Amino acid sequence: MICRGNAVATVTAEEAQYASERMMKELLRAERKMSQTL
């Protein structure tokens, strides 16, 4: 049970990191578009 919980926590952490990285890339892309428009 504890091992399973750790595995799930690890996957969740990896997913959170992946999601945050994707969000950062999206923000950078949006900023680039905004600066180009200006």
Describe it.
The chain has 38 residues and is an all-alpha fold. It has one domain. The protein is built from one helix and no strands. The longest helix is centred in the middle third of the chain and has 36 residues, at 2-37. The model has no long low-confidence stretch (mean pLDDT 83). It comes from Klebsiella pneumoniae. This is IncF plasmid conjugative transfer fertility inhibition protein FinO. Keywords: Plasmid.
What are the key terms here?
single chain, rod-shaped, IncF plasmid conjugative transfer fertility inhibition protein FinO, plasmid
User: H/E series, N to C?
Assistant: H
Shape: rod-shaped
Number of domains: 1
User: Helix share of residues?
Assistant: over 70%
Spatial gap, N to C terminus: 55 Å
List segments where confidence is low: pLDDT < 50 over at least 5 consecutive residues: none
Mean pLDDT reading: 83
Continuous helix count:
1
Largest sheet properties: none
Give the percentage of residues in beta strands.
under 5%
Query: Pairing-aware structural class of the strands and helices?
Result: mainly alpha
Number of strands: 0
Quaternary state reads single chain
The whole-angstrom Rg is: 17 Å
